[in-house]
Amino acid sequence: MPIFWWVRKWVHVRFITRELTSVFVAAYAIVLLLQIRALAQGADAYTSFTEWLKNPVVIVLHGIGFLFVIFHSITWFNLAPKALVLRFGKKRIPNILIIMLNYIAWGVFSAVMVWIILTD
What we know:
There is one protein chain. By secondary structure, this protein is mainly alpha-helical. It has two domains: about 1-75, 3 helical TM bundles of succinate and fumarate reductases, CATH 1.20.1300.10; about 85-120, no CATH class. Helices cover about 80% and strands about 5% of the residues. A two-stranded antiparallel sheet has the order 1-2. A hairpin with a 2-residue loop joins strand 1 (about 85-90) and strand 2 (about 90). It starts with 9 loop residues before the first helix and ends with a helix. The model has no long low-confidence stretch (mean pLDDT about 90).
């Protein structure tokens, strides 16, 4: 089987792209852990870390990573009904309701984070 077998069908391209976006999710987690480590090491280490974050290459990589993380989140939310079957009594909760509850939770969490950041 050729290495690029998946480029023949859009559904496979979308699947592989979604799987590759997990690399960017992991990268964000590593950067967060490095930031926490720098914070624990003191003011000088944290200042050095924030200066590194201002590097144009790092900013561009964060922008690209952000787009991939958004794609990853959207595709995961849309797949949630396949991974999570909820029932209310004997009736199955419609897929669209599960998807919308994910988006609502995402919006509420994002609004809370924006509020926390802007009120400090």
